[in-house]
Hints:
It contains seven helices and 14 strands.
Amino acid sequence: MELPEGCIADILCHTTPLDVARISVISKIFCSAADSDTIWDHFLPSDYRSIISMSPSLTNAPSKKALYLALSDHPIIIDQGKKSFQLDRKSGKKCYMLAARALYISSGDDERYCHWVTLPESRFEEVAKLKVASRSVICGKINTVDLSSNTQYASFLVFKLINAHGFHCKPMFLLINISGGHICYKAVCLDLRSKAMDSTFIFRNVRSDGLLEIEIGEFFNSGQEDGEVEMCVMMIEGNGSFYLEGIEVRPKILIP
């Protein structure tokens, strides 16, 4: 005797979106249960209504599954263009990107070093075109209550290089400071010609949107406390230049 579809849906609520996609091919009743609003409402974040309130196409989504897939397929712009939001498709965890306009940029008011321009690859209306000044600093903050609980997160500087040669052998220092005292610190290099000086040096990665990223660091969000995560990038010297897209915070992918 087969289990009722509603019972199957209740059981699937205790799995993950990836598990539901795999289980849906078992039989017709599992496939039907896997489309249930009960399941996908469970996978959507509890505050999703306020997040999508300014996106009419999403508020009118035909089903909770359709809404989930839309939020995991493409980021939506929120907070007057200063952030983007997306769901990690496999886990349903929250992902945010802080736009350059939402960040503290030490040279942001100096036209010799910072201009606001449009960039075809960007999800935002404008990005910062930066020329590195002595002791340049970029900082962003996000509240832990906005993130998914019980989740290991990583933050990334997202950018596009203009002049990489100016970063040759010039380290960039990355720092995460979490309420309560946890600090993650390391150094990276933007110019691939530079040789690693020690084990703390890493290189940039190419993203699916064509931009580049460097991991600033990672942290665990328990969700039990209202705290703040501060992410900073410090450039002591160099004369390189780049477009600054923002700082992205997304679940850490663990490879078995």
